[in-house]
Design brief:
The complex is a heterodimer of chains A (about 400) and B (about 190). Chain A is an alpha/beta fold. Chain A contains 9 helices and 23 strands. Chain A has 2 domains: about 190 residues, FAD/NAD(P)-binding domain (3-Layer(bba) Sandwich); about 200 residues, FAD/NAD(P)-binding domain. Chain B is built from 4 helices and 5 strands. Chains A and B meet through helix 8 of A and helix 3 and helix 4 of B.
Chain lengths: ~400, ~190
């Protein structure tokens, strides 16, 4: 197993429960990404109760709260200890190659041979910057959401935040409140209220089965896997950090950054439609939740259905940003991540460099993938999604070991 | 008792479109298209453009017939008004693209359309093209498209079709995002 995050640890639990001998190779320590690649104020986007790892129920004393990063790290370390996960820390995998009967895994601490390999290094390894990022004027500092820690590391003056998903909206709010006026470039985004009809939106999504939508049953899985993260924030006051909140604070919205020439960035004229699409999508989710609530007799006991104010967009949003004239010294790219499987030396990649797999069963014998968006279910990217995915994939893995053992004996 | 539901027919062959999508996913080279137009000056501001062939699916393709577009300026500009102004033709392109998209998206979602009417308006300050004020751009200062749609669908479903059509529209993208344009003289 490669990677000691929540997915790898959950898989370890499933394999240990079936007495399958395994190790977890980890470049740093347990929960490495949470320790080193997140900004300071970030909290999990999911309430504490919604991190049900297999063999471990631990909501803490605040099940409806949202874990800070230190709390998340502690939570995962506690889990690793409770399941006695065989983690080899500070062991960076340098290559995985097919070999007779399995794979050879080279690491900075020597070589391993295994019959099966589980890739659990996560979905958020490399910031995915759009090509226009390279064209920024030299005096403008460019950093990704992975480099960003807090507003104090930024120069005074204006900041352009690109991307309006969970990271972009939270970072925009925090920077703007630090006194650095923020312009937020908005492309495709998924708006969602933190609380709806008295419950956390993710309580509804869990209860109504939205999180359980399966990869082999929904319309267009390729599209579903590319949908940006929901515009949610974890906070002590459970606030919704949507575009209306941000414009209320004084953040300026512009369309997607379409090009940069000299000291000017051009913004797409599609902002209004991006917001309309997002409002429509949110309302379809709320419709589904309302229908489920009615079917399950909750209408009498929960506040009635309602809809949120549509996203406010000014009549003529700016189509250009002049970095010099507007004193914008920093751009923060919150434009998503891609996984890094550059160490994987096997013919399993499609033409866009993504691993070919069927619900985590990679197109190579005995190779498995975990923790990518919509891997097997809508919740696959959540800590809470690991339980179902690792249960099913560990079943598959064990069947594979049994089958390949039989074929070895008969040859 | 049984009811027969009339099949939804907006005149869009969605099955063929979905097949094409699948085929072009597997053969991305065939998805490379080049669209062309020819334009000939007639007289004054009047020009005549024709559209005939294009390249796509790895080969030269032909329209069923040659299409002709007259472009001119109106009489208030002291022209002879032999055709639509080029900027109006841009509006026609946007409306045609969005409306075609609406039919296709509706068909794909199983929604019967009865009528679709778009009104397109593009505002322009002529101080730009006349060189009166260099702070005014030549092009539109904004475009407003208003749809009246009758369909077997809720207002919300209709709004979703219109939004999706913009998301997938080539002309909407051409107008809302910059494109490198190279003009050469032989």
């Amino acid at each position: 197993m490669i990677g000691a995050g929540h997915s790898g640890l959950a898989m370890s639990h499933c394999l240990a429960a079936r007495s399958i001998d395994h190790v977890i190779l980890e470049r740093g320590e347990v929960a490495h990404s949470w320790k080193h690649e997140r900004w300071d104020s970030l909290r999990l986007l999911t309430p504490n109760w919604l991190s049900r790892l297999p063999g471990h129920r631990d909501d803490g004393d605040d099940p409806d709260g949202f874990r800070t990063m230190p709390e998340t790290i502690e939570f995962l370390e506690r889990y690793a200890r409770s399941i006695a996960a065989p983690v080899h820390t500070h062991t960076t995998v340098t290559s995985v190659k097919p070999a007779t009967g399995g794979y050879v895994v080279s690491t900075t601490q020597g070589e391993w041979r295994c019959r099966t390999v589980v890739l659990a290094t996560g979905a958020c390894n490399v910031p995915q910057l759009p090509p226009v990022a390279a064209a920024l004027p030299p005096r403008v500092r460019s950093l990704s959401s992975q480099d960003y820690r807090n507003p104090g590391q930024l120069e005074h003056g204006g900041v352009l935040v690109v991307g309006a998903s969970a990271s972009g909206t939270q970072i925009a709010e925090e920077i703007h409140r630090s006194g650095r006026p923020v312009t937020l470039a908005v492309g495709e985004h998924i708006r969602a209220p933190r609380v709806y009809r008295g419950r956390d939106i993710q309580w509804w999504m869990d209860a109504a089965g939205v999180f359980d939508d399966r990869y082999d049953e929904i319309d267009d899985i390729g599209r579903a896997r590319n949908v940006p993260s929901m515009q949610l924030a974890g906070s002590t006051d459970r606030r919704t950090v949507d575009l209306n909140r941000l414009t209320g604070l004084g953040v300026r919205l512009v369309g997607r950054i379409a090009g940069v020439t000299g000291v000017r960035a051009q913004c797409s004229g599609s902002l209004r439609n991006q917001c309309a699409l997002s409002d429509l999508k949110m309302n379809r989710l709320l419709d589904r939740i309302d229908a489920w609530a009615t079917d399950h007799g909750l209408d009498g006991t929960t506040p009635p259905p309602h809809r949120f104010e549509p996203t406010r967009v000014e009549d003529s949003p700016p189509l250009a940003i002049d970095f010099a004239a507007e004193h914008i010294h920093t751009v923060v790219w919150a434009t998503g991540f891609r996984p890094d499987h550059s160490w994987l030396d096997a013919p399993v990649f499609d033409r866009k460099g993504r691993i070919r797999h069927d619900g985590g069963v990679v197109d190579a014998p005995g190779m498995y993938l975990l923790g990518l968006p919509f891997l097997r279910r809508r919740k696959s990217s959540l800590i809470d999604g690991a339980a179902d995915d690792t249960r099913e994939l560990s079943d598959h893995l064990i069947r594979y070991l049994d089958r390949s053992a039989v074929s070895v004996e008969t040859t | 008792m049984s009811t027969t539901q009339k099949p939804v027919d907006n005149g869009v062959n969605v099955a063929a479109l979905l097949d094409a999508r699948k085929a072009l996913t597997d053969a991305p080279a065939a998805a490379q298209f080049t669209w062309r137009a020819k334009c000939e000056w007639v007289r004054g501001t009047h020009s005549r453009s024709t559209v005939d062939g294009f390249f796509g699916l790895g080969d030269e393709q032909k329209h069923r017939s040659k299409f002709t577009f007259e472009a001119d300026h109106p009489e208030v500009f002291a022209s002879e008004d032999m055709g639509a102004t080029p900027v109006e033709i841009v509006l026609v392109g946007l409306a045609g693209c969005l409306t075609g998209g609406i039919a296709a998206v509706a068909q794909n979602r199983g929604i019967q359309l009865h009528s679709v009417t778009a009104t397109v308006e593009g505002g322009m300050d002529l101080q730009g093209i006349l060189g009166i004020d260099s702070d005014v751009r030549n092009g539109f200062d904004g475009i407003k498209v208003t749809y009246d749609i009758k369909a077997d669908a809720t207002p919300e479903e209709i709004r979703a079709i219109v939004a999706q059509s913009q998301k997938r529209s080539a002309v909407f993208d051409v107008i809302t995002n910059p494109t490198n344009v190279t003009v050469e003289v032989r």
